[in-house]
Structure formats: structure tokens, C-alpha cells
Amino acid sequence: MQTSLPIFRVGGLCATISLENEQENINQLWQDWFSGSLKDTLPAFSTSVYCVRHSYQENGSYTLIIGKLISNDATLPENAADVWLPPQQYHTYSLPEKHHSAAADVWQQILADSELPTRRFKADFETYPAFGEAKIYVGIKGKVEMAEEYF
To answer: What is the pTM assigned to this prediction?
Structure first.
């Protein structure tokens, strides 16, 4: 399934992930997220947890942020980082369970998916909502059209 999303901001814990020991580094960041206090002190307006991959490098490394949606003008705690996700089209994949460990297998399927539209490599993310299905959103090339609503 494809969808377009507007720009939004996620704040949380950040690490550079290299392809060497990728899963171990991701698991460590998740462990730091769950064991730390940042998840409780972020000025978030949603209980959903986001895992954002961005700033992809030619050597395969990327930046990973685990956090929550925050407002445009939110002041972050000292140990937090943030990322603005650009408006873009996404191809979505459902996770079989609402746990970050399920994402590794789905990412392997995504990387092997020959029918996936061309990726943008700007930002991809996983969502773990309190209610509903966990998903992976993979940024793809294409025109983003957002309809404005008037109240």
C-alpha cells in the first residue's frame, strides 16, 4: 500500500548504525530507549513510538532515532536528538507483531522486494502505536500531493 505524509518531527535517542553489526547496534539502541528516562521526559503528543532511519551514507551507514512525535517548537531534553521527516510518498509494510524484533525480518523482505518502487533514501520509519498495527514506511520516489482542509 502507498500513502503520502506531510513533514513531521520525531525526537528521541540517536545513533549512527553501520552495516557491520547492524542488528546488534539497533538492539542496543532499543535497550537504551526502554531502560532510559527519555521516553518519559520527551515533550511528545503521542504515545506511539517511532524508529526513524535517515541520513543514509554511501557506505550503507545511516542515523537511527527511536522516539516519539514532537511539536515543531518543542524544546528537547539535553540528551535528545530530533529529525524532520520530509513530505514524501511511502510504501507501507505491516509487521506481524508489535515488537521491534519483528522489523528485522520485514526489512530483509523489503531489501529483497523487486517490486518495490524506487526508494528515495531520505527517511524511512517504523511505527509502534499503542493501538493498531505496527508498520514500516519506506520512502519512495514520486510526487507528493497534500490536500489542504479548510475549517
So the answer is: 0.92
Each residue's pLDDT tens digit, 87-124: 999 999 999 998 888 999 999 999 998 888 999 999 99
- Give the sheet arrangement for strand 135-140, strand by strand: 2-5, 88-94, 135-140, 119-128, 49-54, 62-70, 8-17, 81-85
Give the whole-angstrom CA distance, residue 82 versus residue 9. 7
Name 23's Cβ contacts closer than 8 Å, sequence gap at least 6: 104
Structural domains in the chain, CATH included, are 2-140 (3.20.80.10)
What contacts 69, CB < 8 A, 6 or more positions away? 8, 9, 10, 44, 45, 46, 48, 50
